[in-house]
Amino acid sequence: MKPMNFQQAVARQFNKAAKHYHQHADIQRLTADSLLKLGPNSAEILLDVGCGPASTTAHLLPRTECYMGVDIAPAMLATAANNYPNQVWLNGEWEALPVSAHSVDWLFANLSVQWVHHLEKAMGEAYRVLKPGGVATINTVVEGTFSSFIKSWNAVDDRQHTQTFHSPEKVEREVRLFNWESADFKLEKHIQYFASSRELMGSIKGVGANYVRRTNTSGLMTKGRLQQLEDAFESYRTTEGLPLEWSVLNIRLVK
């Protein structure tokens, strides 16, 4: 069997998460609220990249004459289309957006661009599809995300157990490669708390954020490793529970 490429693997992960996404998407709702505040009050054509199961569609529809949702995962789009059958749903990925150049007034993307293989190519696509004067409101998770979880795994082994998160500076450099009229960046942080490490990992899996690129399977979960992780993670417990940190970079671009 031919091995899956990066985008195919990401799509498979989000296909699995589609059914239970809403019940785990607390952080995604918080970050969407922040991103909505950065967008225009109205836009003729709006492109929601990484729309998932229509997570933010209800908030976006009153602000546009034409809404289009794009997602890499067909199962997410099927759920979205079931919820909003009269809207346009497109299967596609960040690095090859399935819309024409200079056709979009507002590109909205809540926690999707971190799943691209080449950020520069994704930003080039955002620049391509926007009309002159068009606005992009994008966010992405950066270094500092899952910090306690990552440090706990480091106490178990030296394998990679989470996605690699870029620094805010690296993200900003790649975004600024294009001739934006303006580009603004703001970092925000959130912490979720969980009763146990298993509940925490279930939440990560529930929103499809548990895909890790590996060259082998030696870093996969075993009963012994899980116990070691739980023991190491206990040192980070607070009165509120075990922390799951999110560092989110909000980006507002005008072409």
Please give a quick description of this structure.
By secondary structure, the protein is α/β, with parallel strands linked by helices. The chain is 35% helix and 25% strand. The chain has a 7-stranded mixed sheet with strand order 3-2-1-4-5-7-6, sandwiched between helices.
What would your notes on this structure say?
- The protein has 255 residues and is an alpha/beta fold.
- Helices cover 35% and strands 25% of the residues.
- The protein has 10 helices and 7 strands.
- The protein has a 7-stranded mixed sheet with strand order 3-2-1-4-5-7-6, with helices on both faces.
- The longest helix has 12 residues, at 6-17.
- The radius of gyration is 18 Å and the shape is globular.
What is the strand and helix layout of this fold?
Elements lengths: L5 H12 L3 H4 L1 H11 L6 E7 L7 H4 L3 E8 L2 H10 L4 E4 L12 E6 L9 H11 E12 L5 H8 L13 H8 L6 E13 L2 H10 L16 H11 L8 E13 L1
Parallel strand pairs: 1-2, 1-4, 2-3, 4-5
Antiparallel strand pairs: 5-7, 6-7
Helix pairs in contact: 7-10
Unreliable stretches covering 5 or more consecutive residues: 1-6, 8-24, 207-218
Number of helices: 10
Cα-atom Rg, whole angstroms? 18 Å
Head-to-tail CA distance between termini? 43 Å
Q: Structural class per helix/strand content?
A: alpha/beta
